[in-house]
Amino acid sequence: MRSLFFVALVTSLGCSSTQAAQDGGNDATVSTDASDAASDTSPLADAEPEAGDASDTAAPTIIFGMYDNTAIAPGAETPTAANFRAIANKWMDGSRINVHRVFDDETSFPANYATSAGGQDPASGNVSFLSVKPPNDDHAGVAAGTYNAQITTLAASIPAGSYFTMWHEPENDMSATDFVAMFQKFYTVAKAANANITIGYIAMAYQWGMGMASTASEDPWYPGDAYTDFLAVDAYDPGYSGQHSLDTEADFQRWFTWAQKWNKPLLITEYGVENASSTNGFTDTVRATIIAKSIAYAAGYPSIKMMLYWNGTDATPGGTNWFLNPTTSFPTDSYAQARAAWNAGVATYGTTGTSY
Asked: pTM for the complete prediction?
């Protein structure tokens, strides 16, 4: 009854916005020992599928992972490969949290994979999802071939099975025409150097909201069938926008409707629900409801292959907090329900594999 439990969780966690306001902020405290991740998902052990739930339309093959800059105290809150693995194993179902979202800075391309933000992932048992930008945001230089040698060297050194992109969330930084010119060149050069890595375009859901000038014309953002292996999006539920899961989030839905028509694998490469350590964050109960509904919704679409949670603290992104576990800065565990919802979804729909 794995699926049945998850559907029951979605239903039982449901609450109105009024109830959310009454819940207050940090409304759960649990133990922080190493058994917590297992106890969050242990009810799933007794499950059987039931007709009509999401697992009847999608096998448990979503690839789950995360960005992480939290740490097990007293470690520093830094996005290292070791911290990623420690958090995944302690607080989550580590066997199904294997894709590590990592980012290099914009001053220069890393000389090779070993010196990149993902360079320590293999030693920690992680698969990198690496994002880079050209020096000084020179997208025109990429399109002109200025950085072909650097792209070739970096791509060739990335381990097979990794994920790679350039300039995630480009919509508020350049025109669609400029993006496609840059991305087509990047994809062509990187794929020629390493055919065994997966490369695709990552959009920003916020910029796909109705009325956003950058995406007023949608199709020009598509790089072309031969120039992207997937279409991906970064989608968040911040407190200021109201309580929405993916099925009711207008920005995500507009992108999703557009992306489906290209028949590419679809990835949610950053996903987060703001927590109550932020000024406008949701209570633990409300976060759990949103997360559970969002995962169940994604699992109903076989085209959605990946979902990566933004387990981030402080100013990542936008000065708000999204994490699911205690951190050095926020050591009290006030996230048990939200974490349990995430873990239940991962256990129900997640694969231990890292390739779709």
From this structure: 0.86
